[in-house]
Design goal:
With 83 residues, the chain is of the alpha+beta class. It contains 2 helices and 4 strands; from the N terminus they run αβββαβ. The protein has a 4-stranded antiparallel beta sheet with strand order 2-3-1-4, with helices on one face. A hairpin with a 2-residue loop joins strand 2 and strand 3. It starts with a helix and ends in an 8-residue tail after the last strand.
């Protein structure tokens, strides 16, 4: 497995694209500060930097707690360091 996914230290953020069904009312978007939300048909796309797996799990848990169905979670890019 690539260190890009397995060895995250939290020092360099990776941009993630999270697709979910429905929308999030604007007042509830506050915890997602720094992330953008775009509605595409019946789905919404959340894009933003995640610094580590703990933050990613926090965002996914928050969406789940709201009863939102997550369709996909994908990294869009990130560090190319091979150290």
């Amino acid at each position: 497995m690539s260190r890009r996914y397995a060895g995250r230290t939290g020092r360099i953020p990776i941009c993630y694209r999270i697709v979910f069904r429905g929308t999030i009312p604007q007042p509830l978007v506050v915890p997602l500060e720094g992330m953008s939300v775009e509605v595409v048909g019946e789905e919404s796309v959340l894009v933003g930097d995640i610094v580590d797996q703990s933050q990613l799990q926090g965002v996914l848990g928050w969406l789940s707690d709201l009863g939102i169905e997550i369709v996909s979670v994908n990294p869009l890019g990130g560090p190319t360091e091979d150290d």
